[in-house]
Amino acid sequence: MKNLMQVEAINEAIHEEMEKDEAVYYMGEDVRASIYGASKDLFNKYGENRVLDTPLSENGFIGAAVGSSLVGMRPVVETLTSFMWVAMDQLVSQLAKMKYMFGGQASLPVTIKADMYYNGSMAAHHSDRSYPFFMNMPGIKVIVPTFPEDAKGLMKTAIRDNDPCIVFVDGNLGGLKGDVPENSEIENGELLIPFGKARVVKEGTDCTVVGIVNSNVHALSASEKLEKEGISIEIIDPRTLVPFDKETILKSVEKTGRLVVVDPAHKVCSAASEIISVVTEEGFWNLQAPPVKVASEQVHIPFSPALEPLIYPTEEKIIEAVKKTLE
Amino acid sequence: MKNLMQVEAINEAIHEEMEKDEAVYYMGEDVRASIYGASKDLFNKYGENRVLDTPLSENGFIGAAVGSSLVGMRPVVETLTSFMWVAMDQLVSQLAKMKYMFGGQASLPVTIKADMYYNGSMAAHHSDRSYPFFMNMPGIKVIVPTFPEDAKGLMKTAIRDNDPCIVFVDGNLGGLKGDVPENSEIENGELLIPFGKARVVKEGTDCTVVGIVNSNVHALSASEKLEKEGISIEIIDPRTLVPFDKETILKSVEKTGRLVVVDPAHKVCSAASEIISVVTEEGFWNLQAPPVKVASEQVHIPFSPALEPLIYPTEEKIIEAVKKTLE
Amino acid sequence: MIPREKHILMLQRMMRIRFFENKLIECQKAGEIVGALHTYTGEEGVAVGACVALNDDDYIAGNHRSHGHPIAKGGDINKAMAEIFGKEDGYCKGKGGSMHLADFSIGILGESGIVASSVPVATGAALTSKLQKKDFVSLVFFGDGASNQGACHESMNLAALWKLPVIFVCENNQFAVTTSYKDSVSVDHVSDRASAYGIPGVLVDGQDVVAMYEATEQAVIRARSGEGPTLIEGLTYRYEDHSLGLANVRRDGNYRTDEELNDWLNRDPIEIHKKFLLSQKFATKEEIDKMENDEIIAVDEALEFARKSPYPDAKQLFDDLYTDPINFA
Amino acid sequence: MIPREKHILMLQRMMRIRFFENKLIECQKAGEIVGALHTYTGEEGVAVGACVALNDDDYIAGNHRSHGHPIAKGGDINKAMAEIFGKEDGYCKGKGGSMHLADFSIGILGESGIVASSVPVATGAALTSKLQKKDFVSLVFFGDGASNQGACHESMNLAALWKLPVIFVCENNQFAVTTSYKDSVSVDHVSDRASAYGIPGVLVDGQDVVAMYEATEQAVIRARSGEGPTLIEGLTYRYEDHSLGLANVRRDGNYRTDEELNDWLNRDPIEIHKKFLLSQKFATKEEIDKMENDEIIAVDEALEFARKSPYPDAKQLFDDLYTDPINFA
Ligand SMILES: Cc1ncc(C[n+]2csc(CCOP(=O)(O)OP(=O)(O)O)c2C)c(N)n1
Ligand SMILES: Cc1ncc(C[n+]2csc(CCOP(=O)(O)OP(=O)(O)O)c2C)c(N)n1
Ligand SMILES: [Mg+2]
Ligand SMILES: [Mg+2]
After folding, report:
1. Which atom of ligand 1 is nearest to the CA of C181?
2. Which domains does chain C have, with CATH numbers?
3. Quick check: pTM over 0.95?
4. Domain A2-185, what fold?
5. Which of A143, A191, D12, D48, CA to CA, is 20 to 30 A from B280?
6. Contact B303 C94 (CB under 8 A)
């Protein structure tokens, strides 16, 4: 076991995959200088043919990644969710649609590492959390790691996956520390976390709390406080939203009878909306109280540190929501 | 009263608003030739300074519409939902965010008429139904007319509204005929349908069916068949998804105890998911059965006429869903 | 010197496209084909000249006007026709249709319904060639209208910077639907824009298949030797209106005159090349007639093939979305 | 001939920007400011030369490096400072912050955090001028890095086609974060790309505020007389690293040398203009010292203003999203 920050765990995943497979290359803006940390030492180690600094042309270079993947490469592209709007042409019309449209001829092993720098006084242009959109649009796998171990294992699985994956990396979790097993401690020698399998972060009996990215951290601290009041919550991290592990959540709700979904995306048409709709459709008779959504307020992200924190799910909002289900 | 097709009703709305206000202009690809019908006779009537054919640069010209709106114009832009991906930069970062980001200084009276040509063998690149995304992203009003009267009245309201509006026009409804009141028959002389007020398309007692765009047509025919079996459904057309008239739906579910939401968008994170999540959060105790989502299958739109119709909500699927709520 | 076989091949492929398209026009009018149908008649010289200058393992990508490119590259017209009919034996098992033909096995990376959207993709294929030190090139077709999309700018800059072996071929058929390129491109020629990237820009008579071949050949040599991309503009004309699937677009607004169309009909790329072959004694009238006849038969057979092919089965709906089926929410 | 007052005004505004930015740097280091902070020191000549050549009712739009532009246009530094502090009296009531200053009342249509994203917007403001037969112009600032975005291509083409009164000002400060423009722009100069749109492209020494003024003045004349857009490239340099808010970016990878920085420091736009004023006897040393002092005081007052301004109240969170509050699902 070693104790790593999430960003270090992701960096390790990329190193291991680049080491293992020459077809993997890393591309993005200023990735050689590693300005966001995840590409640390890649350039020194793998050189200019495998670590590409791009011009400021996200649509162009994401499209280039797509094209290169069709004929033998396995690109890993670093960007921010907020810079993906300018690249939606290639993300939607090509990356997401191409395989199906061509009857399966295309293989698109592209991984996009999309950083979400919300909650850091970056204002509306830099704080997007756009995974609900990519849940609605078929064709891409939507990966939402929380803990360092999962971040490493899911990133490795994404790079090895033959379908397009977007790994949404929560900037609030970059410094989150956690135990990550050494490869020598793992049965087959490497950490690969499968897609579509939720993690039960904490078992509990009174209410199921599903958390997306940073929400799991808030849910854990809420849990401690709730415990003191004799309330036991079960925390579930879906880890991937496409594919989605419905069963683990439905089973948990069968046990607890209650559901709170915590999601830093804007609340309307959020991942939380989807999860609540699915559980009510399929687990209705197990629900003993209305499910509660704790998601971001339906407004853009304001700059002011006096306003921004009001937007997001917090420990307090989770506690309140859980109690509401128990009224 | 006159009997108009939806596309004629929309054309009438644009004519009336251009007549009334010199600041309104119409812009898009080949709009002078009116290749999609809605801009019929605009060019003859208002000339080259008010009806602009653009180069094939959606990001550029939608951005130009945005900029022009900031300093006095009221652009109406015609495009297809599928061509909006290339323009997401301007739609999201400017059109949706600018007013809030600048503390209210910006006023953006932009109307986008976004045609959805799904269900016409146009394949994956031309069949998008992207309103769920614009529900998730704050800042834009999301208008989803069904019947010709509403299409005219909502289009006029949109053009007159001081906020950005996207009017999602269902290509399947272009030829749908309906009665539209003459201006002389209307109290204040013109047809303006307010945003955020649902239309009760048909009253009923056993199950509430919420329909988005073309789904209302299917719901109406389903209703006739169900009636013969003694099942009475209440059909509600929200008409606008942002703002959203939650009350009318909650009240209806209070009466019927059952809910089916019909939505041609991809089912995951759809408008249907959102509506179901809201009704379960706020109307849980009125529900006598699990709500049912009838939305498009989670797959891209295939070209083949043997496959495409399998994707969308149909009369049969609605009948089945309604019966399921009554089991 | 272009070998004789290539000259013959170019005539053959042009004729194949012409007959293929004309057959589709018939079927479309008879109501046998659904959806949009953008035909390539009149423009055959551009795609054929360009593709015949490529090797089999070079790549191409294209756009909504999508039948000419794959046929020019040597695609299978049975599969192409079946795809346009939405049938199981089509190139994409019926999932793509007219606007999305593709044959990865012979370097056809696919047609794209969103204009200019293939341009970055083709640039990316060229990036693989460079990174893997291969020597294949990649060529992309796009229209005069599409040239105004930002995707073209970004790709040309990237390709020029990284010296990627990609060839940008603008098919300037004078219009984007009803809009003249003079009203949408702010310089005289799309190829003039090459200077903005420091790459060669070549203006070619697209009705002269030999000229297209030669320009492409130069670009291929440049690309394979690591010198980077070339922008070629082929001046051409489409005989039909924009899309047969949208009847209301046809001639609407009188966007072009009969005289203009006639002028171009008098410079038909197939007729020009036939004359060239005869004048150079590369083929006799009889040989050409025979070729023509063979192509007519091949297209008839393709139609038979398409008609006979079954529609895809409902259970194929979810195939090919991901490598393996997955669970959604 | 540029009137003396304009020369004086240019020095004033450049000094105001310099002191404003240096004050922010202090506050940032002291932890008093949160978020990203992209400073404009070193580049003052570009924005000031450009903006002083405009009228008050002309429009500008800018980017993430966002304080210099509004100050150059005559913006209120109290409101600008308060905004950067996230306070209620800020330009955007604290909602925008450093990257989104705007003052619609004096033609500042706002700074944009997404690079190149203001370029179409400014083009649209110019469209209003044309459609309403007004005579205002619109000017947009963007970086060397941003010039590679498709938005620039689409806007320049549109503006050139429609002869819109817009001026595209590329601030070539040599880098996008750590990436040299030589590694991101495939031609020698961004201004070389003007030929791709048939518009004038002007390369200017951005450290010479007078040269920037003159180039802009020419572009304004052209724009107002209906001849269309101009692309101006001002060569300049940023003294600080990309963003003070991202400490890990600073000098990372040694993307530039101390020598290079020193060479540029020796060509400081403020010092150059001071010398010019003295040499032309437009101002005495004492007058300049006095101006300098006044600006220092003004910036100190702005800081006081910002510090004293209250934070916005929680109930303002939902204001300004729509014209009137609406109901969501
Ligand atoms: C992004 C986008 N905008 C608009 C369209 C609709 N459209 C399809 S083809 C076309 C015209 C294309 O003109 P050009 O690029 O010159 O190609 P041509 O049809 O002339 O071969 C248009 C406007 C589209 N498919 N994609
Ligand atoms: C679309 C987009 N991509 C990336 C970024 C991140 N980013 C912000 S500023 C910047 C560099 C911009 O360089 P340049 O345009 O030259 O302006 P400068 O900072 O040098 O003034 C980058 C990469 C962004 N804000 N928007
Ligand atoms: Mg064309
Ligand atoms: Mg720069």
Report:
1. 16
2. 4-246+256-310 (3.40.50.970)
3. yes
4. Rossmann fold (3.40.50)
5. A143
6. yes
